[in-house]
Amino acid sequence: MRIVGLTCLVFVTALLANVAGAQERLTQLTLAEAIRMALERNATLQAKQLELQSTHANEITAALRPNPTATYLAEQFGAPGSPQYTISLGQTIETGGKRGRRIESARAATRVTSYELEDVRRQVIFQIKKAFSDALIAQASEALATANLATLDELERIQRFRAERGDISKLELTRIQLQRFAFERDAADAAQAIQAAKSCCAASSGPKCSPRPSALWASSPFATFPSSEKISTDWP
Q: Would you say 62 and 109 are in contact if contact means Cβ atoms under 8 Å apart?
């Protein structure tokens, strides 16, 4: 009975953990949050940060002085005379400012790497902002194409009724029906643009960006867009 109770307790604990994990999944994402995630998880940025840490370690290594040396030598064993033992101690003394130049070179390498890190961070932020901007533009295009399709459907219904009554020719109705393909193509192109922008955003956020939100909220960097836009899509 105790084993059964313990098993149920473990099952309930695991279930609660799964529910908590599901609740932690992102369902809304702002531009600021996307930038934060990218700065924390982007693989290229993480690699450059580790490289900067390595150059800092090189500064410590460059400042180290040569270690002293000690040798012990025993010889002339078995000779008529007594064996000879030699002990020597040595210390390398660097002259000509070698140590100072070595330290300065390591510090210069650290400065260069820090500048490269800032450039990588700037590029990551730019990619995220561009992806969000592209997604917002594509979303607006998709909404416009969808509205055009709805208007065209209503117009086609009215014109079909008029064609059946003989008020207009069937050729006019056919033109309206053909125009629908252009709006459908615009809607499909906008949907593909949203997917491409979303894929770019996910790639910039790094391999740990595993949540698949059902809605992506993007704060627009343009004044012409509202402060918050909803992009109905999932991570690829």
A: no
pLDDT tens, residue by residue, 134-161 = 888 888 888 888 888 888 888 888 888 8
Residue 202: is its pLDDT beyond 80? no
Contacts of residue 152, Cβ cutoff 8 Å, sequence gap at least 6: 176, 179, 180, 183
The rounded radius of gyration (Å) of the Cα atoms in the chain is: 35
Amino acid at 178: L
Q: Residue 135 corresponds to which tokens in the numbers above?
A: 């997604």
Is the pLDDT at 228 greater than 60, yes or no? Answer: no
Identify the band that residue 53 occupies on the pLDDT scale cut at 50, 70 and 90: very high
Type of residue numbered 169: S
Q: Decide if 42 contacts 205 (C-beta within 8 A).
A: yes
Instruction: Give the predicted TM-score (pTM) of the model.
Output: 0.60
Residue 189: which residues within 8 A CB-CB, separation 6 or more? 141
Determine the Cα angle at 206 with ends 202 and 212, to 5°.
Answer: 45
Residue 16 and residue 13: Cα distance in Å, rounded?
A: 5
Mean pLDDT estimate for the chain: 75
Per-residue b or e along 99-134, where b marks 16 or more CB atoms closer than 10 Å to that residue's CB = eeebbeebbebbeebeeebeebbeebbebbbebbbb
